[in-house]
């Protein structure tokens, strides 16, 4: 025992040096609670979809709150699941591509990545009893009607015979291509790749009583290799003739090598656009687009852009004309991973679309603001609307107007987020955000927006953002949970505020979980208050779900300030009184690790020692502590007089409380030696360790076995500090001297 302990003290610096060459992850916004899939299941607040059949690529395509149903598309299957319990009598339709279509697909050179199946990509409500659905059909898009009945109690979910039709312009050929669609007033609006080769992308309108029209074909000024993500109808005024379809996408930038490779866009068309009379026949005559910017400005004034739009969530407000647009962005490439969430107002969007048009001119053919004459009515205005009451159809638009919009579909100004800054930013992390859902939650001190963010690591983060002061926001990651048994990137997130449930899908499965897990924050009032989760409040006995109907006298909640000193008077002393102390042993002359993990990564930890026979507590100084981490403290060589009671005190938001009490007993070295040097009693592991202590050449595996997990964490922390100091060239010599001094002391 002594030999192993002495060995640790002698070679600790060597191990630290070895580990410093391991690439360590950068700082991330640490969640207050992190749950593995197993731990999530133990909370009994989540339910994975357990019906197994030969399929993959689950996507939540439609939420029907009226029938309490969620509709999923997958490879060769459609599913209707109960929102309360996704495993309760699921209704399933098997919809495979025909054998002949699959053979044709393979003969065309496809199928190496499993494309020659029917992947369901579109489910839209056609009327109260029927759904319209489309699939890739083994590179031959196909659509059909589904009868879902009047009420969910009918358990009706079947494909209507004889309704299958071609899906070109409604659904992509290739299942790997993203698309979007919205069925409005019987007309289907789709952002989709139209051809087999995936070279012709368009915003299409099909079905209904209006003519089929699309964007201009093979014109990079309109669309340049776009990836469509979302489409939503938003009225512009009280006049329904002004209704527009807004669609969000990313596309290859026209700027080429002088700018970003990809840009995010928001575009729009009028719902009553019927195309031009002589020019742009069967093409949109109201199509406009603008850049969507999500960026941060550094201390040096340089603006860093998140250019790759990943997902969109439209949050309704009391005014249907002005919903909020939440958008998830990421950086391009895989070397530097970063993500951000930006929020946009429709007022800012409309200001840009009512602003100057972009125009290319000059010897460098650069984008400038168009200063020439703009036709009347203004390009992009809808016929018969507020500003064009005398025009009944787009076919009455002048040739001048139609030609202008053909050559000037891009707005000069970009749409910036609210307050011109992101709501959430993640930099230097090993994951990217892939999806988003937002819930509005009523708390004691107001209404809060809770963001649920899916990642490409198969986790979901719950985040709130609070105003810290007039110019700064405070971002709090309440929890991060693994939602799938086998980790896979989150493809879609849907939320049901009515059911208080979140639904998550990936290529491998679907999971349903509640929006809150209040007891995981802790059993004390202070833990519940410091968590600042709008869903949770202290009810006098535990941290539980907060509702507006809760008794006002017993509930304790403070989202804005998270102040347990004010909210939890009378409860804090009880927790300190019932805190149990643990006993730990150390050997004289060796290092000792005392473990203490506060519930919050934002808490500052201080260690105090209360020596034997004394009531006074003293702060442990740097001369005694080798390394302090979020997992505990590593004490350098302990002596007999280090015996005592060690207090781990955490401070968060001005609230101090004792997290752990550890009574350290330092054993006499000679007594330990006399017990542990008997060769007969040595285990194989101890023999190996003594061999290492005698100078035998150690292997990396042998070295690792001599350290426990908390000590490994200490080593990681030391390495972070090591590299931070090493990155400062002027202090290299100072750091080398300090490292040598540490070596001498050890």
TrEMBL record:
Family membership, please give it: Belongs to the semaphorin family.
List keywords of the entry alphabetically. Disulfide bond, Glycoprotein, Immunoglobulin domain, Secreted, Signal
Q: What is this protein called?
A: Semaphorin-3F-like isoform X3
Q: Name one GO cellular component term.
A: extracellular region
Which GO terms fall under molecular function for this chain's record?
A: chemorepellent activity; semaphorin receptor binding
**GO process terms (BP):** axon guidance; neural crest cell migration; positive regulation of cell migration; semaphorin-plexin signaling pathway
Classification via Gene3D superfamilies: Immunoglobulins, ligand-binding face of the semaphorins, domain 2, YVTN repeat-like/Quinoprotein amine dehydrogenase
Which intervals hold domain Ig-like?
588-660
Q: Sorted alphabetically, which SMART domains does this protein's record hold?
A: IG, PSI, Sema
Location of the Sema domain: 32-515
Write the signal peptide boundaries: 1-25
Question: Gene of origin?
Answer: LOC117348929
**According to its UniProt record, where is this protein located?**
Secreted
Cite the CDD domains for this sequence: Ig_Sema3 (cd05871)
């Amino acid at each position: 025992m002594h030999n192993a302990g002495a060995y640790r003290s002698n070679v600790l610096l060597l191990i630290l040096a070895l580990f410093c060459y391991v690439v360590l992850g950068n700082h991330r916004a640490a969640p207050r609670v992190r749950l593995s899939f197993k731990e999530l299941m133990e909370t009994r607040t989540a339910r994975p979809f357990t019906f197994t059949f030969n399929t993959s690529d689950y996507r939540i395509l439609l939420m029907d709150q009226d029938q309490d149903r969620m509709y999923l598309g997958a490879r060769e299957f459609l599913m209707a699941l109960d929102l309360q319990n996704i495993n309760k009598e699921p209704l399933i339709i098997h919809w495979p591509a025909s054998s002949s279509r699959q053979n044709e697909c393979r003969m065309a050179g496809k199928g190496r990545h499993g494309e020659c199946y029917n992947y369901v990509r579109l489910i839209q409500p056609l009327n109260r009893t029927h759904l319209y659905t489309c699939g890739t059909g083994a590179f031959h898009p196909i659509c059909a009607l589904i009868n879902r009945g009047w009420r969910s109690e009918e358990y009706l979910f079947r494909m209507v015979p004889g309704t299958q039709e071609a899906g070109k312009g409604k659904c992509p050929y290739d299942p790997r291509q993203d698309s979007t669609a919205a069925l409005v007033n019987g007309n289907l609006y789709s952002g989709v790749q139209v051809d087999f080769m995936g070279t012709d992308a368009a915003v299409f309108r099909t079905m209904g009583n209006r003519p089929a029209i699309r964007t201009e074909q093979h014109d990079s000024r309109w669309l340049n290799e776009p990836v469509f993500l979302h489409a939503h109808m938003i009225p512009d005024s009280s006049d329904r003739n002004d209704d527009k379809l807004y669609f969000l996408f990313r596309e290859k930038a026209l700027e080429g090598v002088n700018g970003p490779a990809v840009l995010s866009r928001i575009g729009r068309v009028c719902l009553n656009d019927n195309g031009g009379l002589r020019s742009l026949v069967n093409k949109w005559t109201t199509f406009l687009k603008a850049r969507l910017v999500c960026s941060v400005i550094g201390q040096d004034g340089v603006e860093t852009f998140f250019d790759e739009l990943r997902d969109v969530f439209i949050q309704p407000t009391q005014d249907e004309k002005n919903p909020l647009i939440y958008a998830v962005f990421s950086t391009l490439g895989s070397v530097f991973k970063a993500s951000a969430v930006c929020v946009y107002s429709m007022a800012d969007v409309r200001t840009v679309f009512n602003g100057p048009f972009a125009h290319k001119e000059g010897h460098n053919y650069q984008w400038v603001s168009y200063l020439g004459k703009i036709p009347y009515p203004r390009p992009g205005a809808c016929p018969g609307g507020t500003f064009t009451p005398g025009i009944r159809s787009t076919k009455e638009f002048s040739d001048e107007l139609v030609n202008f919009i053909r050559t000037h579909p891009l707005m000069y100004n970009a749409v910036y987020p609210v307050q011109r800054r992101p709501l959430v930013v993640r930099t230097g992390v090993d994951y990217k955000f892939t999806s988003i859902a937002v819930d509005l939650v009523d708390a004691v001190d107001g209404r809060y927006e809770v963001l649920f963010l899916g990642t490409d690591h198969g986790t979901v983060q719950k985040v709130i953002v609070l105003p810290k002061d007039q110019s700064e926001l405070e971002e709090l990651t309440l929890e991060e949970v693994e939602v799938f048994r086998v980790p896979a990137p989150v493809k879609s997130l849907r939320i049901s505020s009515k059911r208080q449930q979140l639904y998550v899908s990936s290529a491998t499965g679907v999971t349903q979980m509640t929006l809150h897990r209040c007891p995981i924050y802790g059993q004390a009032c202070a833990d519940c208050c410091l968590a600042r989760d709008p869903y949770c409040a202290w009810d006098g006995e535990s941290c539980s779900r907060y509702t507006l109907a809760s008794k006002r006298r017993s509930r304790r909640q403070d989202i804005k300030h998270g102040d347990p000193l004010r909210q939890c008077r009378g409860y804090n002393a009880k927790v300190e009184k019932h805190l149990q102390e643990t006993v730990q042993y150390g050997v004289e002359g060796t290092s000792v690790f005392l473990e203490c993990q506060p519930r919050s990564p934002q808490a500052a930890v201080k260690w105090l020692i209360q020596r034997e026979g004394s009531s006074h507590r003293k702060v442990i100084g740097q001369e005694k502590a080798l390394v302090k981490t979020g997992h505990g403290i590593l004490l350098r060589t302990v002596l007999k007089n280090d015996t005592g009671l060690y207090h781990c005190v955490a401070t968060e938001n001005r609230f101090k409380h004792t997290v752990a009490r550890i009574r350290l007993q330092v054993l006499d070295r000679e007594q330990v030696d006399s017990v542990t040097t008997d060769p007969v009693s040595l285990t194989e592991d101890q023999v190996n360790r003594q061999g290492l202590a005698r100078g035998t050449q150690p292997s990396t595996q042998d070295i690792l076995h001599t350290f426990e997990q908390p000590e490994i964490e200490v080593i990681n922390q030391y390495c972070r500090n090591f590299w931070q100091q090493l990155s400062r060239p002027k202090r290299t010599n100072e750091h080398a001297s300090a490292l040598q001094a540490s070596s001498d002391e050890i």
